[in-house]
Design a protein that fits this description.
Helix content: 40-55%
Largest sheet: 9 strands, antiparallel
Number of helices: 17
Structural class: alpha+beta
Radius of gyration: 38 Å
Low-confidence stretches: none
Distance between the termini: 55 Å
Length: 681
């Protein structure tokens, strides 16, 4: 029972303010401390977020031209508009592009024969052109030229060391990939540290050569040095392997806190992109605030910004925030004393709880906890009304699909007669041997046991977004793709069928230990167009489905008995579920009410979940079925006899074997189609 003591809201609020004034003095210290720590966290996170975003934007802007260049040249090469066989002309094209792309350090091309040409940035706006061509002895003939802005060329001293592009990291990596790739930082042949964006050119899957656009990493370090975080804060760029690519400090000791940070965060290699992880670090007697945030670039470049800042850099702001908080708290208390009487009639937290609860009810979320009792008379009346309304709606949802009720409540309109044609996946199931089971049970036990079975089935169906149409004794009619449309309704229905069988298998162990009937479900699945909607009279109707597809799902459920299967589906359901599941083509069947034959399938498991023996047995059965339909009866009988020895309990094998023997003994006429006719429901 709800308490009978009810006080006026104005009285309660006035008393509350008085009590608040008494305890305020004791809580200000705690509030100041909490706000100070909060301010530190907010300041560091806000600053770190800005730095990470700026750094990532700079890196993307710095590296994107490389992606654009190799994409463009790849396209030109595929269209035969790039002179790959004329190294000198190709090098000049690279040189002109290098002058236009200020961030790039080098553009190169190496082919599968060992030829190489590249243009790299030199001083004073000049470009160095390098060529390497292998001779008959496998040695490289190298050539270097300096090209001025006006096109004038000057020869340079060549390196006599043999250079084979096919042995370089960028060539080997691109040759293994079908798209753009980025190398890890590595040492170039001239001693510089750099990174390369590369893509392989192919013809008939054969690598013709590799195009690259390269960067020197010192440009990134120069940019990071421009970022100032307090007096001693540092910014680093790091890859997934933990290698520091660039840093804002030249001191090697600045890496020591980063090394400890990585050792204390073992999961950093698995961090998702664009999700910052903050960590408080103690190193060398100092406390540091740190952040790691990964980001990705096209071509698989996966780097992280790492920010390390001594905590003392923020303490000045923390003290200032604490003083501000104390002043605001004092002013707020004074205002509260004056405004308490004027606004005592306003609603407080209980009213907010009621408002939140009503919002959830508007979304048909009825599983919220009961609202707490209130000593305020007006609040108590509203609370009781809200609880009665939730109870009524919960009762209503037991009679109709919950999702349909949620839509009606959300729309705020009354249900009306009407329907629409829509392609649904129908689920029809009932209990194997239910009639004989029910004859041996008392009515009250039967109701209890059946409820456990139905709870299990309904729980699985609704979990996979199935809508329960109706219960027909032990039978269930459900459908997917209504009232809420879903594009993968066939897949959801198959997942639900497999999970229902697994759930029932677990329940049977419990039922066996309790001496209860061990229910087994036969399930029929079919995907087809039906009429779905509110069907009935103007006074009473139900949300249901009508159509031939419903009847076919029921026939498939009944057909399980003849084949000894527990999940049978039509060709349309199997087709729409794609390659998500493992199937066995059972037969070509003419069900009751249909003259033409249709292929039916047994749903076995999710894709890849069959053992090797199960897969082989399935494949051999399907080959025997094909032999049967091709009138090769003796060959079909031989295959089925071998299968029957290994799986004597498989009724599908027995049935097909019997039909094949019959046809072998009495060959059918020319009008024979091999269709199995369902004679009983």
């Amino acid at each position: 029972m709800r308490q009978s003591l009810n006080l006026k809201l104005r009285v309660v609020l006035t008393m509350g303010v008085m009590i608040l004034l008494v305890i305020t003095a004791h809580t200000i210290g705690l509030i100041t401390f909490v706000n100070s720590r909060s301010s530190l966290g907010e300041l560091s996170r806000s600053l770190f977020g800005q730095i990470s975003a700026t750094t990532q934007e700079k890196v993307r802007g710095h590296f994107q031209p490389a992606v654009n260049v190799v994409r463009e040249y790849q396209t030109l090469a595929e269209r035969r508009r790039l002179p790959l066989d004329k190294l000198d002309e190709l090098g000049l094209i690279f040189a002109e592009r290098l002058r236009a792309e200020s961030s790039l350090s080098e553009i190169t091309y190496g082919d599968s024969l060992g030829n190489f040409v590249g243009s790299s940035r030199a001083k004073d706006g000049q470009v160095e052109l390098r060529q390497s061509v292998p001779n008959s002895h496998g040695r490289s003939q190298n050539r270097r030229q300096l090209i001025a802005k006006n096109g004038q060329r000057s020869p340079l001293t060549t390196n006599k060391k043999s250079y084979d592009p096919r042995e370089r990291p960028w060539y080997l990596l691109a040759a293994k990939s079908k798209d753009i790739v980025w190398t890890t930082p590595y040492t170039w042949s001239n001693g510089d540290m750099g990174i390369t964006c590369a893509v392989a050119l192919r013809k008939d899957s054969k690598v013709l050569g590799v195009l690259t656009a390269d960067f020197r990493l010192n440009s990134l370090s120069k940019f990071l040095k421009t970022i100032k975080i307090g007096q001693t804060g540092q910014v680093f760029l790091m890859n997934r392997k933990g290698t520091v690519v660039a840093q804002s400090s030249e001191s090697k000791k600045s890496l020591d806190p980063v090394k400890q940070l990585l050792s204390e965060n073992k999961e950093w290699q698995e961090m998702p992109s664009l999700k910052p992880v903050f960590h408080d670090l103690e190193f060398g007697g100092q406390n540091y605030a740190t952040e790691i945030q990964f980001f990705e670039l096209e071509g698989g470049l996966d780097w992280a910004t790492v920010i390390v800042v001594p905590e003392r850099e923020f303490l000045g702001n923390v003290y200032k925030t604490a003083r501000t908080t104390f002043l605001i708290a004092a002013i707020a208390l004074l205002i509260a004393m004056i405004a308490a009487y004027l606004f005592a009639a306003l609603l407080s937290n209980p009213m907010q709880q009621i408002a939140n609860d009503l919002t959830r009810i508007g979304q048909f979320d009825l599983e919220t906890p009961s609202l707490p009792s209130s000593v305020i008379n007006e609040v108590e009346v509203m609370t009781s009304s809200v609880e009665r309304m939730k109870a009524s709606l919960r009762s209503f949802s037991h009679y109709v699909p919950r999702e349909l009720v949620r839509q009606l409540v959300k729309a705020g309109k009354e249900a009306e007669l009407g329907g629409e044609l829509r392609v649904l996946t129908l689920h029809f199931s009932d209990i194997e041997g239910f009639t004989s089971i029910s004859e041996g049970l008392r009515p009250q036990d039967l109701v209890t046991d059946l409820a456990q079975y139905l709870d299990t089935m309904v729980g699985v169906l609704t979990h996979h977004e199935g809508t329960i149409d109706k219960f027909m004794g032990d039978g269930i009619l459900a459908f997917f793709n209504a009232p809420v449309p879903t594009s993968d309704h066939a897949i959801k229905s198959c997942h639900a069928a497999l999970e229902a069988q697994r759930a029932l298998a677990l329940k049977r162990e419990e039922w066996k230990s309790n001496n209860q009937p061990e229910f087994r479900a036969r399930i029929g699945l079919h995907t087809g167009e039906v009429l779905v909607g509110n069907i009935g009279t103007t006074e009473r109707f139900s949300y249901t489905v009508i159509g031939d597809a419903v009847n076919l799902a029921a026939r498939l459920e009944a057909l399980n008995k003849a084949y000894g299967t527990f999940i049978m589906a039509s060709e349309e359901t199997r087709r729409q579920s794609g390659d998500t599941f493992e199937w066995r083509r059972l037969d070509r069947v003419s069900v009751i009410g249909r003259a033409e034959g249709l292929d039916v399938y047994e749903l076995l498991a999710q894709k890849g979940m069959l053992s090797e023996d199960q897969a082989q047995s399935r494949d051999r059965y399907e080959s025997a079925l094909s032999l049967f339909h091709d009138r090769q009866f003796s060959e079909a009988v031989a295959v089925l006899a071998s299968l029957a020895e290994k799986a004597p309990e498989d009724k599908a094998i027995q049935l097909l074997q019997s039909r094949a023997k019959q046809c072998l003994d009495s060959p059918p006429g020319d009008d024979w189609t091999g269709v199995f006719k369902q004679l009983v429901k």
